[in-house]
Amino acid sequence: MTRGNEYMIFGRVKPLDAILATAEKRGLHRSLGAFQLTMLGIGAVIGTGIFVLTSEAAQKAGPGMMLSFVVAGFVCAVAALCYSELASMVPVAGSAYTYTYAVMGELLAWMVGWALILEYAVGASAVAVGWSGYVVGQFQNQLGITLPAALVNGPYAGGIINLPAVLISLLVTWLLVIGTTESARVNAILVCIKVAALTLFIALALPVAQKEHFEPFMPTGFTGVMGAAASIFFAYVGFDAVSTAAEETKNPQRNVPIGLIGSLAVCTVFYLLVSAGAIGSPLGAQPVADAAGRVLDPGTTELAARCKAVVAAGALEPLSCSREALAHVLRTIGWVKIGNLIGLAATLALPSVVLMMMFGQTRVFFTMARDGLLPERLAAVHPRYRTPHVVTIVTGIAATLAAAFLPVGKLADYSNSGTLFAFMMVGISVLVLRRVDPTRHRPFRTPLVNIVAPLAVLGCIYLYVSLPWAAILVLPIWGSIGLLIYFGYSRKRSHVGRGIIDVVDDPNLQPEVARPLDR
């Protein structure tokens, strides 16, 4: 690379030699077909968002949240097709940061990695808060113990601290430090639990759904539907498990799009049926409004106070107010014990998602530190547990603080802002590389790329601007901090910039080939 190119936006491309040298130590057999890929995607995607964000979507869009699931699923599908091409060009299993560094250069890789840190760490906090709601419900409905409201709610709901969310975040941090990872067998069991719980919910709630509860269908208009779509985009995150499996796929040009579209379609149908069952219940899904008829924003003290007033007046707790929405619906239609089982399923399954997200964040952080872009002390490996303990503890503290004080909806929105930016960059990268490097080998090529990639970019941008203002502002503020760090610290210490090429022999410490937890 010439010195002039070094300062271009696409300069400092990380050589593939170091990545591939380690990948060769652990070559992956091409054994996955379309069906296996579809099942892989369903397992990685389904469950989390519908468990923890149904109330949020109901408050933003009312029954129109069914359209929100379709919109979010479509944007995910076109982004996933672009992601697959980028993933296949760098034939290792890894993250968007790794791919971008290898094909687009250091600055854009830094921006993607910095956004992924936001996505994973804040996403873990969101799931921890969602888990807290189900745990509190289990104590109350299974054991008859009402936990102090001040200790199970953040300030947004009139409490002091969300202690269950703090405890699960700290527990997951400790498990990651000592080297606990989720086995394929445990993951399969948890996927079965999630799918069985949602199937049972659909079987019980849908037959008794009342069509009058679907009117008005869009009480907050098209803006509300898109705002809910931007939030419940969180429900689809995880599809990249399929994209990054291209290396292990037989006939990837045929099977990868089938796996992607198939898994997203199945998940979308599940989400539509679950939301229909919730909307048609006696609770309905109309947003909660104040005395003047103004729809209140989710995750605010005003909404929390209004919810308490509604319940105090003797009415059923609205769907938008519930912290364990699916369990609450089943209890309301007479299936109290089954509702408690749904809550138990969420209680068992969601900690593994916290573990997966925090694992992903620490590995991205660790890779960036090992590349010299962050202080190398963060890449220190524990002498006994052989885990990146420093970055894991830093991540755990940050995730715990966010979970302690912020509501689940706001955390999901903040996480989505990072995710949408990363996926937008992937769409742009595919278009740019088709133009500047058309001869590069691509095991998978995005079909109709001149239509699909722009749709992915525009879809991500539209969902991003549909987020609440606070979430919209998080990304440029976070990104500005990242650019200051990059130009003030990372650029001159970058290993690629200094001509240092590392090859890590231990595949467990090489995130580019470490197996993701959701496989």
- Which overall shape is indicated by the principal axes computed on the Cα atoms? globular
User: Percent of residues in helical segments?
Assistant: 55-70%
CATH topology: Amino acid/polyamine transporter I
Average per-residue pLDDT, rounded, comes to 83
- What's the CATH class label? Mainly Alpha
Radius of gyration over alpha carbons? 22 Å
Beta-strand content estimate: under 5%
Q: How many β-strand runs?
A: 0
- The assigned CATH architecture is Up-down Bundle
Number of domains: 1
By helix and strand content, what is the structural category?
A: mainly alpha
- In N-to-C order, the SSE pattern is HHHHHHHHHHHHHHHHHHHH
The unreliable regions are: 1-8, 22-28, 505-519
Keywords: Membrane, Transmembrane, Transmembrane helix, Transport
Protein name: APA family basic amino acid/polyamine antiporter
Transmembrane segments: 34-53, 65-86, 107-136, 156-177, 189-209, 221-246, 258-279, 341-366, 387-406, 418-436, 448-465, 471-489
Pfam families: AA_permease_2
Structure description:
By secondary structure, this protein is an all-alpha fold. The protein has one domain (26-498): Up-down Bundle (Amino acid/polyamine transporter I), CATH 1.20.1740. Helices cover 65% and strands 0% of the residues. It has 20 helices and no strands. It has helices spanning 3-6, 16-23, 34-45, 48-61, 65-89, 96-103, 106-142, 149-152, 163-177, 184-205, 221-232, 240-243, 252-279, 301-312, 325-332, 336-370, 389-405, 408-436, 449-465, 469-493. The model is unreliable at 1-8, 22-28 and 505-519 (pLDDT under 50). This is APA family basic amino acid/polyamine antiporter. One of its GO terms (molecular function) is amino acid transmembrane transporter activity. It is found in: Membrane. It is a multi-pass membrane protein.
